[in-house]
Amino acid sequence: MALPAPVYLKALKSRTLEQRAKKAITVLDSCTLCPRQCAVNRTAGETGTCKTGRRAVVASYNAHFGEEKPLVGRNGSGTIFFSHCSLHCNFCQNYEISHLGEGCAVEDDQLATIMLELQQAGCHNINLVTPSHVVPQILEAVYLAAQQGLSVPLVYNCSGYDRVETLQLLDGIVDIYMPDFKFWYHDVARDTCNAPDYPELAQRALLEMHRQVGDLVIDKASGLACKGILVRHLVLPGGLAGTAKIMAFLANSLSSNTYVNVMAQYRPCGRAREMPALSAALSPAEYDQAVQETKAAGIHRLDKPRRMFQLC
């Protein structure tokens, strides 16, 4: 039995997709897509925190087999890594991409072609990594690609630092939201990302995502996700992420049926060693404690752990 058609095909037919793309493009004239709200004219080539003008910058795209099990399937997740980022975690494991902007600027029709190539390669979805600052370009590309036969689910793979107003442009377009919930504590978000408002904004963003798509739905026959929210949480050393409080929020404010990936792969990357608390890798004991806190909160749908630790 085939998976349900992605929601953007209905939006294409109703012309909602075209209208959303046009509306989103106008935001670039005084950009307020992300919580930084730089208000620069990206259409004219000005750049703000995300260092991205009118064209999206793509670092790489491929069939990715390291993602969560319901996304990977047999042929991989069709992952598109966008360069730059509006959050700028000092410990980012993709520092060269998110901070230094390695990649090539692409026109919207070129981005559409990338999506179609990934589908042609057999990928089960289009996985948009760090998309928050390029929502208009994505909508335009999906509009173009859908007219040419794009028919796999869209995955919005983000940091959780998203404005509800921007997410509403994606309502009925995105099938699967895959946000991080990184930090519960304001001071940690301030010191790592200069974003003390992250905890509140992530909560609002996840509530909006869940409102749009609900809990993750996995097709029994294929094991593939077709709709819903999948939350990632990177465990930080010293309990800095506030895992117990984040999981309580997910269980009580979203759903105890929320699908969660408790991630073990923290290691000091980028500028992390500038902060003593982040200068050591995560220990197995710290990860085990985070999993116990997750289960104690009532979260029971956990992605199969891939425990990756390093000696330090």
Strand content is 15-25%
Assign the CATH topology. Answer: TIM Barrel
Main β-sheet: number of strands, strand sense, barrel status? 10 strands, mixed
What is the general shape?
globular
- In total, the number of strands is 10
What is Rg? 18 Å
How many structural domains are formed by the residues? 1
Question: Mind telling me the CATH class?
Answer: Alpha Beta
Order of helices and strands: HHEHEHEHEHEHEHHEEHEHE
Please bin the fraction of helical residues.
Answer: 25-40%
Cα separation of the termini: 49 Å
Backbone structural class: alpha/beta
Discrete helix count: 11
The averaged pLDDT comes out at: 94
**Do you know the CATH architecture?**
Alpha-Beta Barrel
List segments where confidence is low: pLDDT < 50 over at least 5 consecutive residues.
307-312
CATH homology group: Aldolase class I
What's the topology here?
Layout: H1 7-14, H2 16-27, E1 56-64, H3 69-72, E2 77-82, H4 95-98, E3 104-106, H5 108-120, E4 126-129, H6 135-147, E5 154-158, H7 164-168, E6 176-179, H8 186-193, H9 198-213, E7 217-218, E8 225-234, H10 243-254, E9 259-263, H11 284-296, E10 301-302
Parallel strand pairs: 2-4, 4-5, 5-6, 6-8, 8-9, 9-10
Antiparallel strand pairs: 1-2, 1-3, 7-8
Helix pairs in contact: 2-6, 5-6, 10-11
